[in-house]
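Ticket #4471: structure export looks truncated?
Reporter: QA, pipeline team
Priority: medium

Steps to reproduce: submit the single chain below to the structure queue and open the exported record.
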Amino acid sequence: MAIGARLAIAIAAPVLAIGIAGCGGSGTVSKGEFKDALVKQANLSDTVAQCITDDVFAKLDNDQLVKIKKSTDGKDITAEEKKVITDAAVKCVSAGGTTTAK
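Actual output as written to the record:
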């Protein structure tokens, strides 16, 4: 596994654990707030955070995003949801945020 991929996984793990705290109201998660949480809490550039946000929002529905937001320890987040975020982080960090969701 490349260094960039390992770095992305290291970034994704704490993001899952904190549940993107503070994103939007209780029943919704906005792309802007999700991206801002990645910038602030994972210390990512706007470009990389936007790439991850776009990819995650393309693959997870609002209920899944709200569950992630509310999670305090990541234990209630499914393996599939974790994989979506980790894969987005690997892709976007490795490419410097220049990729788009597919």
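Status: closed, not a bug. The export was complete when the record was re-opened. Leaving a note from the reviewer for reference: The mean pLDDT is 75.
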